[in-house]
Amino acid sequence: MMRILCVCLGNICRSPTAEAVLRFKAGAEISVDSAGTGNWHVGKPPYGPAIEAAALRGYDLRNLRARQVKPGDFEVFDLILAMDAQNQIDLEALRPSVNETPVRLMMEFTSSQQSEVPDPYFTGDFEEALDLIEAASDAILECLI
Ligand code: 4NP
């Protein structure tokens, strides 16, 4: 069983969306979770507009709850996917010594010029985030098969 952790800042917009999209597209051999580098929203469901935009594409985010990423995640997951470069920097600061779990930008797997998923909490563009996350999820699963 391969385990993938999706990480963003708040764990209420991008990474829960990535979790649901990857889970929907992946087979049973891949388990997916998400977490945030920040702690403001711990225990809360995803942001309403993110839930609504995802639901229109068939992804159910309603039962997800935010949590903060922790050093132990590096021991549990086989691949950690950061939504933006700052998430990647913050993740590297949490990496336990000797751990070599890959922390990659989710968008690295696509041929897109864009390397980050812009935060829809600030841009308001939930469709853009979904478009990028769906394309990256397809590319990642293609790469893992
Ligand atoms: P996310 O978006 O990282 O995609 O979950 C955010 C949501 C909330 C905040 C930051 C990012 N916030 O600072 O409250």
Notes on the structure:
With 145 residues, this protein is an alpha/beta fold. β3, α4 (85-94) and β4 (103-105) form a beta-alpha-beta unit. The chain has one domain (2-144): 3-Layer(aba) Sandwich (Rossmann fold), CATH 3.40.50.2300. The protein is globular. The mean pLDDT is 97. It starts with a strand and ends with a helix. It has a 4-stranded parallel sheet, sandwiched between helices. It has helices at 14-25, 48-55, 73-76, 85-94, 120-123, 126-144, and strands spanning 2-8, 30-36, 79-82, 103-105. α1 packs across α6 (126-144). It contains 6 helices and 4 strands. The chain binds 4-nitrophenyl phosphate. 4-nitrophenyl phosphate (4NP) binds next to loops. Residues 8-14, 40, 119, 121 line the site of 4-nitrophenyl phosphate.
